[in-house]
């Protein structure tokens, strides 16, 4: 609709949130398992703080503009492509213990998630993970560079998030 009406708006399209890993605290610490079936293709995970920062920067830019700004779309992504092997390597390193991947089986994932989340959410997450496993969600170098220019720094990395989170869990 925004595009059809040629509205002068900023559209923010975030990738998979790194903060989803907060829900992995118990399995990571007590079972040494990473349970999100993100697959092997790769995802350019975004830190939710970067989403907030992008929104604030764009709101201010539009507010301060002397005239209406053209429509902008930002793919909000992280600086690297993370897959199952990489994420368990990161968590193993920052937690100082060997972490194992629960695997890509989506039925088991939906069942597990359904014990703590509404059925519709477990189903939706299963569909999302299926898409990541099949196609990945990989940002281009240009998308990452554009965000770095917007923020005045590189987007936050999965490793940065894991280091901060592991410290907070202690």
UniProtKB/TrEMBL annotation:
InterPro entries membership: Ergot_Alk_Oxidoreductase (IPR051604), NAD(P)-bd_dom_sf (IPR036291)
Gene3D superfamilies, alphabetized: NAD(P)-binding Rossmann-like Domain (3.40.50.720), UDP-galactose 4-epimerase, domain 1 (3.90.25.10)
PANTHER family tied to this protein: PRESTALK A DIFFERENTIATION PROTEIN A (PTHR43162:SF1), PTHR43162
Entry protein name: NmrA-like family protein
